[in-house]
Amino acid sequence: MIYTSTKRRYFAARFVTGIDANRSIKDELSEAVTKMRARRRISVTDIINPRQAFFKWTHPEIKVPLDKLQKMMAGTGFHDLFGKAVSSEEYLEQFVELEGIVGKIDIYETIPVELKTSGSIPEDIQAKRPGYIDQLGCYACMAKKDSGILLIYRRSEWGRDPILRAFDVRYKNLDRIRKEMILRRDMLQDALDRNDPSRIPRCEWMEIGCDYCAICGCENADPLPRIVAPDEVEIAENPETTAYFVDLLGQRPAAPVPDGFGLNDLVFPRMAHFKRQSNGNGDEEDDSLLEEQLKEMQRQGFDKVLKAALRFGIPGTFKGIPVSLRDLTGIVGTFRDVPTLVRATGMWEMIERDQLPYKMSHYFDRLAFECALSNNPKGRVVIYYKALQGDKFMVYDVTFRNLEEIRAEADRRLTLLESGAVPADLPPCPSWMPKFCKFAPGCGCG
Q1: pLDDT band, residue 403 (cuts 50/70/90)
Q2: Which of 175, 198, 176 is nearest to 187 (CA)?
Q3: CA 345, 5, 444: angle at the middle one, nearest 5?
Q4: Cβ-Cβ contacts under 8 Å for 141 (sequence gap 6 or more)
């Protein structure tokens, strides 16, 4: 079969017979993403700002705005990826407990290491981010250590490059920290028992922005004393520690070349060819540029947690169906038995539905192959617009015709990959990809 340039780039578009915006599924998935898990025990995070914790416990109906939740999710996923890159399983997410207060230290080998993601790194951390120092102090006390390491990652936003900085933090009075932790535990528990937060001091978010500002009454509450007094802590930036973690990031091994092929190889066959030619190095970030590696971890972190929230937020609705085609194997994710893709995009405006197969052709190519291999003419794509304010989700039900022809194209692409065909015979990647691809311009996609 001979393809024109347009057909090669927009394969799935000609098989789409209908695209419908599904409001019912959209509302259901939005609820799953914003759902807060029930709390059972008082944590270190709770006692850092106990007044805010009170309203989180007692007002689960107040949902975190999606814009804020997006940053929280990106931070959670980034923690996971960063930790795995610089440490091993035995030292990650270490559970600690003190007098009924629980916590998880991000990395704990010899001393606690706490990683924070933020939009900025203030010069005076104790004054501008006292919660960071308090939280690490609690972990140091629980671990019976008088020092810890604070890592702050400034997110890549609005065109800014990311920054990673490390600080040594030494605590002079662990006994006082312990007493303040217990005091706050009892104060929060008493407020929960009485369903009355009036005795809890205001939290540090009063003038910064809080999800509970309409009901919390912080403006009438006493100021919140710090767990760690300013004169009982020493904070010093440590470039050597920063360099140590940067070096660990640079030691990540290249991803191994898989024995067979996956579903994404059908969508990006030319990239799949070059990855195998480079022995898997196409999966490796450019480690000479820390900024690019951190940006990718930030993006992957958000995507990972977003998909997990959607898949597990409504128990029993997401299932994985194994599919195969000779050496190709994969799992088709289904939501209520319909093949469903979950994708996040940085586009600044929502795309008109009739333009989706062209503007987001790789989403629709993947969905078409999944539908064909699972023998289902209907698929679904969930698109989350990260850059938009307010309404961020769109859910589209997509109907395809001629599944046999789509399967034939999957077979044709797989045959070319298996035979080691020259790149020019393989469909190119979308036109926007070469500017971000390490194989350009040699790949010829541009």
Answers
A1: very high
A2: 198
A3: 75
A4: 98, 171, 174, 177, 178, 181
Residues 358 and 375 in one domain: yes
- pLDDT tens digits for range 92-104: 888 889 988 998 8
Shared domain check, 323 and 243: no
Please tell me whether residues 163 and 76 are part of one structural domain: yes
Tell me phi and psi for residue 42, to 5 degrees: -75, 130
Same domain assignment for residues 105 and 222: yes
271 and 239, same domain (yes or no): no
Task: Name the residue range of residue 180's domain.
Answer: 37-249
- Provide the domain count of the chain: 2
> Could you report the per-residue pLDDT of 341-356, keeping only the tens digit for each?
988 888 888 999 899 9
Over residues 141-188, the pLDDT tens digits come to 999 999 999 998 887 766 667 788 999 999 999 999 999 999 999 999
Query: Number of C-alpha atoms within 13 angstroms, CB side, residue 229?
Result: 11
The predicted pLDDT at position 414 comes to 93
Which helix (DSSP H) or strand (DSSP E) does residue 413 occupy?
helix 403-419
Q: Which CATH number goes with the domain that contains 176?
A: 3.90.320
Q: Per residue in 215-236, pLDDT tens?
A: 888 888 888 889 999 999 999 9
Closest to 335 (Cα-Cα) out of 377, 381, 373, 267 = 381
